[in-house]
Design goal:
Blueprint: H1 14-18, H2 20-31, H3 33-45, H4 64-69, H5 76-87
Helix pairs in contact: 2-3
């Protein structure tokens, strides 16, 4: 089995170039799963509510699957599954409720809407 220490590897992927600090935290998922999972769950679950990236660049949850695919892992299937699950956590924009248009009652058999 090929053990990979991502924290000491000089990664040249686009994620390491754009968000080096967050890149280190994401690759630590395999070495320190509990700490990393808690942080990533919190980030993914609050992605639409909190402004991330103001103090340092971050990799958005929508790119975590691509991030996982761009790296070599000791247990690639397990890490990939974790990133897929994490990437599915951000709340999606909910569609507005659709309302059926009101229509005038043309037949007495249909109930008419009450006037206010």
């Amino acid at each position: 089995m090929n053990n990979v220490d991502h924290e000491t590897v000089d990664c040249r992927c686009r994620f390491a170039q754009l968000a080096p600090g967050h890149h280190r935290r994401l690759v630590s998922l395999e070495a320190h799963p509990l700490t990393s999972l808690v942080e990533l769950i919190e980030m993914a679950a609050t992605w639409g509510e909190i402004e991330y990236g103001e103090t340092e660049p971050v990799i958005p949850p929508s790119e975590w699957i691509e991030f996982a695919e761009a790296h070599v892992w000791s247990d690639g299937d397990r890490v990939f599954d974790a990133f897929v699950a994490l990437a599915s956590l951000p709340p999606r924009a909910r569609p507005l409720a659709t309302v059926t248009p009101l229509r005038r009652a043309t037949d007495e058999a249909e109930p008419a809407l009450a006037s206010v």
